Amino acid sequence: MSSPIVTGILSFGMSGRIFHAPFVHAHPGFKFKAVLERNQKKAANFYPDVVSYDAIEDLLNDDEIELVIVNTPNHLHYQQAKQVLLAGKHVLVEKPVTATSAQLMELFNIAKQQNKHLLVYQNRRWDSDFLSVKEVIESGRLGDLVEAHFRFDRYKPVLSPKVFKETAANDASGLVYDLGPHLLDQVISLFGKPVAAHKVTAMHRSGSEVPDYFSYQLSYPHQLTVYVTSSLLVAQPLPSFVVHGTAGSYIKDRCDVQEAQLDQGIKPTDDQYGVEPANCEGQLVTIDVTGNRLVENIPLLKGNYLNLFEAVYQTIVNGALYPITDEHIAWQVELLEQKD
Q1: How far is Cα 249 from Cα 244, in angstroms, rounded to an integer?
Q2: pLDDT (tens digit, 9 = 90+) per residue, 12-63?
Q3: CATH code of 206's domain
Q4: Cα 324 → chain centroid
Q5: Residue 121, Cα to own-chain centre: how many angstroms?
Q6: 161 and 251 both lie in a single domain
Q7: What are the pLDDT digits (tens) for 287-305?
Q8: Which of 79, 84, 90, 289 is the right S-S partner for 68, CB 3.0 to 4.6 Å?
Q9: In terms of domains, do 248 and 131 share one?
């Protein structure tokens, strides 16, 4: 293996502690060198050898650092990713990478000029529940697809104490830019770019400045329709994945345990990491040639966000094609910024 990619992370809040540091630390292809902590210095409690910088300029001036993870609030992603690229470093930026297509194209151009990689963190391609849906669709057991529903619901009627998330003046605020990138990326990874899209948003919570509900109706070739929905006011969530085809249907709840396990300190290398609980099997319903209805529980799969970091490593070190392609991200941002 080549020398590990020396990596810095721009925040050690929930995102840095759960979604990034454990994987950069666990993967032998990375060296977790530094983190940006403007106020509370918490990283050393978990990673004693990691350097804690007070300002982004200090981290970017560290010549040893080759890759910077931008995991700050949404409205900072564009400007900070730009700073990282102009400092001559690769960047892995959380969703949404930008608020607009114009910003995204600018970052792509800067990355090309700097001969550096602009990579987007779309971890939920490696959720166990989505992997199950992907496997069933690709098996062909549903026949020709007719309709699919992808949902991501929560019940949070009170505005977030993180004011930046609730401020309309901030770029990329609201539920569309929070959970929309996850759902749209999953859909795009399976079906590509839709031929038509209709978007609806709404604000239901008292005092809300930003959408807390959205729904897309996406049209694909062969009359496939995909519905993408998210709400912060769903007390009883519906199944997160429902796919209907000419030969059957598949229903799967959102069962991925990685975030909860990481929050509990379970490491990505632990045997039980990413393994769904026993009651989360997806249900495949098909009709046989005699018209009988067959119901089958699909075996549980293991999710693993470490595969995303493996893809980052292979892209930077060996020039492999990153699975979350520039086209995928461009299509996603087009949908995010689409007017109702």
Answers
A1: 4
A2: 999 999 999 999 999 999 999 999 998 889 999 999 999 999 999 999 999 9
A3: 3.30.360.10
A4: 10
A5: 6
A6: yes
A7: 888 888 999 999 989 999 9
A8: 84
A9: yes
